[in-house]
From TrEMBL:
<keyword id="KW-0267">Excision nuclease</keyword>
<dbReference type="GO" id="GO:0006281">
    <property type="term" value="P:DNA repair"/>
</dbReference>
<dbReference type="InterPro" id="IPR001943">
    <property type="entry name" value="UVR_dom"/>
</dbReference>
<keyword id="KW-0234">DNA repair</keyword>
<dbReference type="GO" id="GO:0004518">
    <property type="term" value="F:nuclease activity"/>
</dbReference>
<feature type="region of interest" description="Disordered">
    <location>
        <begin position="36"/>
        <end position="94"/>
    </location>
</feature>
<dbReference type="GO" id="GO:0009432">
    <property type="term" value="P:SOS response"/>
</dbReference>
<dbReference type="Pfam" id="PF02151">
    <property type="entry name" value="UVR"/>
</dbReference>
<feature type="domain" description="UVR">
    <location>
        <begin position="2"/>
        <end position="37"/>
    </location>
</feature>
<dbReference type="InterPro" id="IPR036876">
    <property type="entry name" value="UVR_dom_sf"/>
</dbReference>
<feature type="compositionally biased region" description="Low complexity">
    <location>
        <begin position="36"/>
        <end position="49"/>
    </location>
</feature>
<protein>
    <submittedName>
        <fullName>Excinuclease ABC subunit B</fullName>
    </submittedName>
</protein>
<keyword id="KW-0227">DNA damage</keyword>
<keyword id="KW-0228">DNA excision</keyword>
<keyword id="KW-0742">SOS response</keyword>
Length: 94
């Protein structure tokens, strides 16, 4: 018999109320697989013990930012001399 998402949610809530959190976790993972497109039979056969929840922002939306790594031969440009900065430009003050 294949379970529907609603029946799995009911079983998950009952397991959580009876403090059987391991069973509730297995049911939660089966629900997630079924919502992701797996059939009920595939979700039942899947080994869900190694599943890891995605961290917030890991797809670049939100909190995490990806660091750009420069090429290995890149050198930062030389800093301008502070004694000669802005010399030779006409002043725009009125």
């Amino acid at each position: 018999m294949t379970d529907t998402i609603e029946s799995l949610e009911r079983r998950m809530n009952l397991a959580a109320q009876s403090l059987d959190f391991e069973e509730a976790q297995r049911l939660r993972d089966r629900i997630a697989l079924m919502r992701g497109g797996a059939s009920a039979a595939e979700a039942e056969r899947a080994a869900t013990s190694g599943l890891v929840r995605q961290k917030p922002g890991s797809m670049g939306l939100g909190t995490s930012r990806q660091r750009v790594t420069p090429p290995t031969d890149w050198r930062p440009p030389a800093k301008p001399d502070p004694m000669t900065a802005n010399h030779g430009r006409p002043s725009r003050r009125s």
